Amino acid sequence: MSETNTAAAAETAAPHRYTAAMAADIEARWQDFWDAEGTYAAPNSAGDLAGDPAVVARPKKFIMDMFPYPSGSGLHVGHPLGYIATDVYARHQRMTGHNVLHTLGFDAFGLPAEQHAVATGTHPRVSTEAAMDNMKRQLRRLGLGHDKRRSIATIDPEYYKWTQWIFLQIFNSWYDADAQRARPIAELVAAFENGTREVPGGRDWAALSAAERSDVLGEYRLAYASDAPVNWCPGLGTVLANEEVTADGRSERGNFPVFKSKLRQWNMRITAYADRLLDDLDALDWPDAIKLQQRNWIGRSEGARVDFKVGDTDAITVFTTRQDTLFGATYMVLAPEHELVDTIVPAAWPEGTHDVWTGGHASPAEAVAKYRAFAASKSDVERQADAKEKTGVFTGAFAINPVSGEKVPVFIADYVLMGYGTGAIMAVPAHDTRDFAFARAFELPMRCVVQPSDDRGTDASMWDEAFASYEAKLVNSANGEISVDGLGVVEAKAKMTDWLTERGIGEGTVNFRLRDWLFSRQRYWGEPFPIVYDEDGVAHPLPESMLPLELPEVDDYSPRTFDADDADTSPETPLSRNEDWVNVELDLGDGVKKYRRETNTMPNWAGSCWYELRYLDPHNSEQLVDPAIEQYWMGPREGMPTGGVDLYVGGAEHAVLHLLYARFWSKVLFDLGHISSAEPFHKLYNQGMIQAYVYRDGRGFPVPAAEIEERDGKFFFEGEPVKRELGKMGKSLKNAVTPDEICAEYGADTLRLYEMAMGPLDVSRPWDTRAVVGQYRLLQRLWRNIVDEATGEVTVTDAEPDEATLRALHKAIDGAGGDMAGLRFNTAIAKITELNNHLTKAGGPLPRPVAEQLVLLIAPLAPHIAEELWRKLGHTDSVVHRDFPVADPAYVVDEAVTCVVQIKGKVKARLEVPPSISDDELEKLALADEAVVAALAGAGIRKVIVRAPKLVNIVPA
After folding, report:
1. Which residue among 345, 435, 446, 896 has its CA within the 20 to 30 Å range from the CA of 954?
2. What's the CATH fold of domain 690-891?
3. How far apart are the first and last CA of the chain?
4. pLDDT at 6 over 90
């Protein structure tokens, strides 16, 4: 009989068998039911919470996935891994008495939609909304229990109205270092006006022009515009944040070269929060690896700021963690972008300048210009790499070492960055590897000021390498006013810092690797800034009544791009082309005036910095979030001193982008009194990745994985051999499997079970379509244990379950329940499978209590089949809000365990004993056993070793 005929015959014999077609019907019906009934709706207003004491009395759980971007190509089976996991967890939490908030929105601004618009002429909103609709359809098919009333999209003007509003709160705030919090800028203005705070430069606030006041406040605002070095990507036509540039100095998206350029851009003063961002990590339940990445990115280091005088009026300020070695500083190096370079460069080379210092150039200005162009073509990572050849050029200027009084030459070199410290270093070549190599290359002097621990001596010019130590004593470090000779490093640093501070040429300070967040993008598809400029160029915030400021229509969506290698270009934004929108007349409170709008847009990170708050109160048009609602779901409580989301699941790749930015925004909003949670996410869990095999032909190009033929352990495509490697899953690698395919062949519950059963959630694992059938068969056996495949009738009985079944049931309940609470879904499924197999082998109809608890046990993992079986068992309510089964401790503990009795290391008996048996009782029982008595044959006993309840070892005399 053919395979088709065999299947047809089986279907005729068992018309009510659980099949893919039946699964599709069951799943569609229950998804419609959940939507119609609002099954997953959590209280979403202060009135709901206040009006239902029973709801408030229940423990709450706010569960979130990281914001998905609605890709035009839709989901592959790797995408839903985290979504299914949080859904299972949320369902289990509901069944264990929690009030659960679980929803999902879309991070819908971003470059892909804009690039698609450029290529096709389709408005980004059209393609983005189509992608969202497709993704919603795919996610619905998986049976995810989201509160759909709360779903949001960052491109909705009613959403980005509040993104703009938050920007204005940050713009209108400053960080009070004394109070260690953000305060309204109006309070700073008042302090300037009444004289309680001195205006920088000592001028009277009332005497300053509007533009001058704007410049002063710009030095304090948490959101400010400045001319600063940026990562300019001509190929994309936009600037990029440091985090968006790859290690080899190219754009993360598009792989274009990135150059250093100076442009006026919006920034967020995240550096003001560096200490708090570090300190509050201790209160968070995050993976240690993510905390370490954030700590390293923030990069706190203690040292001193030291001024080196240049000429009569200028000074180069350096930050150093080794101020004890100041006597060993023999030259200085500035970053090529340093603002003092143009000021200190003389017209001609000083008399006696070494040829190796000039780079062969006729003048310092020419040398500096050429070197700056060279450095701009390299990324920060490339500049910091330990290159064999050290490059740089003398500026023609000298600075004065403040402790020795010596003139030291000032160079520029690419290994010094504006992104760390002050963009300037004092070079102590005898005790720093890079400075040592640079000094050798440019024939610069080296002075030993830290006593070497070996026999190399103190003449550094004779050394082969630098000597760096934090343990050695200081030498050659004295003048008529201070000496640190003979001191250890810690003592010498403290003494040197005090000396510098007393003379006003330095002070102890803390430095951070973290830089302020570049917040401007030269793109169309992003949130417009709620900022306008008057005729003097002064920035004015729009009033809340004018929000949202919506994106206008433009004829061309793309920023102007340039030759990817042309660093001598500047951005031209799409919004600047709509003159009617850009140039406006507004009344901002002092009459109608002409203004020009900001034509940059916010980065795609803006909308995801606060979306957890909008989930709480998505339709509030009057407030960012109702304080009572925010307090209930996210406020501080026992074990969560800084508040936040109870569980946040997503990829580890966002450690220093989204997570750091969102923490910053939360802290500002907390300081200003808008929210009670100082941290956005209390518990963070990083799921692994579903990988897939990639097959490459002889040219190295991917070929369709679905068309691969395997023969004798080798792989072929269209008859030609190909190589197989494990990698990401994706359309470009031709190995993507869509959830639609798996749902069509097996059903959504099978896909859910398979993804959760593949391995620990936090570990990456390879996809294998052939293995999916294992979970399909589990559901078929589950169905068969409760439903007659021929009649469709329930087969349960009212008989009492036997003890073996009760033990199997309650062990599964105890183990699987704990595993679900701990996100160990693979082991939970293994325990449910073991129980189902026991019931299958036992045969006969299941006792009703066993059948019902089995259905409730698997409900979080396979909700559709659970709902169907629950209804067939005669219930009219949903399993979603039913109580999760509770294990009876009496059945969880084994009734008996096997104890092995050994004589001279050989097994002589096996005893069935209670798990709680004592050592003395077990010894007596073992010695009385007939087999043991016979084996001893009257011999004396020298020693008995008892390890109750599993082992007795007898040593004869």
Report:
1. 896
2. Isoleucyl-tRNA Synthetase; Domain 1 (1.10.730)
3. 72
4. no
